[in-house]
Amino acid sequence: xxxxxxxxxxxxxxxxxxxxxxxxxxxxxxxxxxxxxxxxxxxxxxxxxxxxxxxxxxxxxxxxxxxxxxxxxxxxxxxxxxxxxxxxxxxxxxxxxxxxxxxxxxxxxxxxxxxxxxxxxxxxxxxxxxxxxxxxxxxxxxxxxxxxxxxxxxxxxxxxxxxxxxxxxxxxxxxxxxxxxxxxxxxxxxxxxxxxxxxxxxxxxxxxxxxxxxxxxxxxxxxxxxxxxxxxxxxxxxxxxxxxxxxxxxxxxxxxxxxxxxxxxxxxxxxxxxxxxxxxxxxxxxxxxxxxxxxxxxxxxxxxxxxxxxxxxxxxxxxxxxxxxxxxxxxxxxxxxxxxxxxxxxxxxxxxxxxxxxxxxxxxxxxxxxxxxxxxxxxxxxxxxxxxxxxxxxxxxxxxxxxxxxxxxxxxxxxxxxxxxxxxxxxxxxxxxxxxxxxxxxxxxxxxxxxxxxxxxxxxxxxxxxxxxxxxxxxxxxxxxxxxxxxxxxxxxxxxxxxxxxxxxxxxxxxxxxxxxxxxxxxxxxxxxxxxxxxxxxxxxxxxxxxxxxxxxxxxxxxxxxxxxxxxxxxxxxxxxxxxxxxxxxxxxxxxxxxxxxxxxxxxxxxxxxxxxxxxxxxxxxxxxxxxxxxxxxxxxxxxxxxxxxxxxxxxxxxxxx
Length: 658
Ligand SMILES: [Zn+2]
What we know:
Elements: H1 12-20, E1 59-60, E2 66-68, H2 72-85, H3 89-100, H4 122-138, H5 141-160, H6 173-179, H7 187-205, H8 208-226, H9 230-239, H10 245-256, H11 259-267, H12 271-278, H13 289-306, H14 309-325, H15 357-374, H16 377-391, H17 425-433, E3 442-444, E4 448-451, E5 457-461, E6 466-472, E7 479-486, E8 490-498, E9 508-510, E10 513-515, E11 523-531, E12 536-540, E13 545-550, E14 553-561, E15 564-571, H18 578-581, E16 596-597, E17 609-611, E18 619-621, E19 625-626, E20 631-634, E21 642-644, E22 646-648, H19 653-657
Parallel strand pairs: 4-8
Antiparallel strand pairs: 1-3, 2-5, 3-4, 5-6, 6-7, 7-12, 8-11, 9-10, 9-12, 13-14, 14-15, 14-22, 15-20, 15-21, 16-19, 17-18, 18-20
The structure holds zinc ion (ZN).
């Protein structure tokens, strides 16, 4: 949030699967029972859930059923966990206690959590979401205990604030300012984060207390917004960021079955955003990106709860437009927090303050919804690209600190949060990002599993009595191995995503012997058979180097290898001081000079760029760079120096003009 970012916390689909259960109708869905009701049996709400009103073609697994194995994602998750453990419950609660008139001798955190910053408290919500996801992903009891303590503290504050259900780290008078359209940062945005954190605690940690506090907040939101007619509500929404209020309220409806939550959710639908989308019109230029996306996630969730086809139409159009006409090669989007250009005009968007991390986080959430409706591989073609290049790449491997903007402007450098003095929106979504890598590797229907992502992991599909282990060193090694664990033979359709980037047929070996399969890019290859424990499937994933040009500038392009975006290592790390790098949303100053490539677009790539022997995914240009050649490495591995993702291919226009 600028800032003015917004995000929202993961919930939707997992709630859909784990709490809300299987859809009401649809032959292929009837056996797809929620995988992990048992973990919620001790809470009061597990029985009162609403099934989706629409057919669901693929369900996520409960995060508890997936464990990451060694690899870059597990390493990033471990770093995130270490950071989260360094945060203190009393400091996360301090301004809530002050606001509620309760004693607190803790110190407020810095940055956006300082006692005079108007979005204070949002990080406490993000922490709860991230802790709930982290507990589900790892079973780490310490992080759960800390999050439980925060929930208990929030419950005390809510009680001390009266009977309305209001809870915040700032007084309720902030909402008077919103309603009278007087300057205030984003109180609904902040409330959304807290509610989403509580709902995540209910879902992943079975916290009845968290659900109770969230329900109290929803009651307060309803009474507060009931006073506004439709026109006033629209004015309020256009004036302030509200994050995913519609999403979290729809999730609460799904959990509790209380129709008033769904009705209140719909009051947060921003018609300014949705009306053009319904008619297939992109009027997104000038809009604040991370306000827009969460509101459409809410529309997606409302579609699942209501079955209204108009909602599905607008969500689908939006997703196609953002991923097709408004995204960088990394899967990220936005420049200076907005869409500043018309569709397909990406060149102007290559800014130093582009690609806000929260936007990628939210696009991934939205993608999960669309995938669940269609089970189409293209959604994971996008997801994979954004996950490697726009999420994994935003955490500093040396200290776990996370990024706000991801500069697309050639010749810039990365900047990071400080551990205790930033607490930006992207710090919050960052904590969540690295806690939930297990949530999308596998989806399922009643007959089998979708293997969407090539990430070392193990899935325990208890209902089927089967464990699926994926061993892979992808992308360093272009293959993955699936091993079935089962006490007795099990009929199962194993569906492996054939990526859109596959540079040839995916050779498949069953128990060491090549088998015939059909594999076309951006589809699933399916092995439907009876599996015995110990059987093994190996799948080659042929990767190749390619250039992807900007739609509006065919002479400006990025190198991509499989799904992995390569960046040019430009050096200059010794001149990047701690002051330039830490505690900054984005880089400052001028970019360094970036070489161009003196080649023709028709020159075969292998004539001017070669792989570097012994170094996977590393390439070096050969007699092509002017004034010098460059080395390219995966963007997600390139830290501590200046970089370029987009390159001028052929002589730059200004030189040609001279
Ligand atoms: Zn952000």
